[in-house]
Write a structure and sequence with these properties.
Elements: E1 3-6, H1 9-15, H2 20-25, E2 39-42, E3 47-49, E4 54-64, E5 69-75, H3 77-83, E6 85-87, E7 92-95, E8 108-114, E9 120-122, E10 127-135
Antiparallel strand pairs: 1-4, 2-10, 3-9, 4-8, 5-7, 5-10, 6-8
Length: about 160
């Protein structure tokens, strides 16, 4: 099963703002065309990204998917080509065990960086990134891993 979901309103208030109307109305990611690989992810904030500046953009999303997949987050091509906007970490990897972690429910965040010489305006609802589901393999002789993720973003804290 693969599904995008909204984080809880309590988490949303912590990470975005106390705006129930926006929470109730923002859209889950969608593909724009029949053969699109990526699901468009929108910004939930308005912000002017100055040249050389980076900013964490909350998406209000979490995602559940099979254990042998990951969700790759990449910048939308047009933002990079036309405006010099990139992901600060180049590519985001969301692991299956990030979903519903105890730190932040698995809230997917993207950090945008402006590499151009011009300010870039981000509006609420702008498509800023895309998510692509990818199946992966592991080596045949891997020992069983028993550690379980406890933390959220960037966490290597295990139990």
């Amino acid at each position: 099963m693969r599904n995008f979901e909204k984080i809880s309103f309590n988490q949303y208030k912590k990470d975005v703002k106390d705006d129930k109307k926006l929470y109730d109305t923002f859209s889950l990611p969608k593909r724009k065309t029949k053969y699109s690989a990526g699901y468009d992810i929108i910004s939930l904030i308005e912000y002017e990204l100055l040249p050389g500046e980076s900013k964490v953009i909350p998406t209000g999303l979490k995602c559940i998917f099979p254990e042998d997949e990951f969700l790759m987050i990449v910048i939308r091509s047009s933002l990079g080509f036309k405006y010099g906007i990139k992901l600060a970490n180049q590519v985001g990897i969301i692991d299956a065990d990030y979903y519903n972690n105890e730190d932040n429910e698995g809230h997917i965040l993207v950090k945008l960086e402006n590499t151009s010489k011009e300010p870039f305006k981000i509006n609420i609802g702008d498509r800023v990134a895309q998510g692509i589901f990818i199946k992966y393999n592991i080596v045949d002789n891997e020992e069983e891993i028993k550690d379980i993720r406890k933390g959220g973003f960037g966490s290597t804290t295990c139990n």
